[in-house]
Write a structure and sequence with these properties.
The protein has one domain: 3-Layer(aba) Sandwich (Glutaredoxin), CATH 3.40.30. The longest helix is centred in the middle third of the chain and has 18 residues, at about 100-120. It is globular, with a radius of gyration of 17 Å. Helices cover about 50% and strands about 10% of the residues. It is of the alpha+beta class and about 220 residues long. The protein has a five-stranded mixed sheet, sandwiched between helices. It has nine helices and five strands. It has helices at about 15-30, 65-75, 75-85, 100-120, 120-130, 145-155, 160-165, 170-185, 205-215, and strands spanning about 45-50, 55-60, 90-95, 195, 200.
Length: about 220
């Protein structure tokens, strides 16, 4: 897709933002080992029970990740209804951008700007949800992500100038880089990755996650 048709990709982002996005795949390949997912982290976006809840479910995900989109569609509604909406657990979403990284970075930054502008964290999740729902074919390289960003920013009431200021914010980009490094240090190397009370859960199905959550709730 040409830059003229998609002003919300590399052409819309600062040089540093573009370099950051292009470097994320290489960063993910050098993940370190670690216990992973335990405790609160700077920049966490959360739903459900308050910090310090008996059980915390952490998801590392990307808005451009096919597996994340499938999980969001098929599993999340049941986990949300059973555990999050009832405040039985705290759900924490952590950003780990995947290809196309420039679009993932922009989507996450837009979500944070939306939440900051409205004062409502739900607007962050609104952006994440809409980005993940833009995978109707579940193919990683399908066109349309940039158009999705434009549609979302318009729906949020952001002008193009506000959007550009958001996705080229040097401080926000640096903070995202720190969150990515923190994920690597915890052993995250792909998405989606799930932790329940700091323990990785390989089975990300409703049954697998429910079993891990229920075991912790029963303690």
């Amino acid at each position: 897709m040409s830059a003229s048709r998609t002003p919300f990709r590399f052409a819309a982002m600062s040089r540093r933002a573009a370099i950051t996005g292009a470097a994320l795949a290489a960063m993910a390949l050098s993940a370190c080992g670690g216990s992973g997912g335990a405790g609160a982290a700077e920049g966490d976006m959360a739903k459900g029970a308050a910090e310090g809840a008996k059980v915390t479910l952490v998801e590392y995900a990307s808005v451009t990740c096919v597996g994340c989109a499938a999980w969001q569609r098929d599993v999340w509604p049941q986990i949300k209804s059973k555990y999050v909406d009832t405040n039985q657990i705290r759900f924490v979403f952590r950003e780990f951008p995947t290809p196309p990284q420039d679009v993932a970075v922009a989507g996450f930054l837009l979500g944070r700007c939306a939440a900051a502008k409205s004062g409502n964290p739900d607007d962050y999740f609104r952006v994440v949800d809409e980005m993940l729902a833009s995978h109707p074919q579940l193919t990683p390289n399908q066109p349309g992500f940039a158009e999705t960003l434009q549609r979302i920013r318009t729906g949020l009431g952001f002008s193009q100038e506000e959007y550009l200021a958001c996705v080229t914010d040097e401080a926000a980009i640096a903070q995202m880089e720190e969150r990515i490094r923190a994920g690597q240090a915890q052993g995250v190397s792909g998405t989606p990755t799930f932790y329940v009370n700091g323990k990785v859960v390989a089975d990300r199905s409703v049954e697998g996650l429910s079993a891990a959550i229920d075991a912790e709730l029963a303690k």
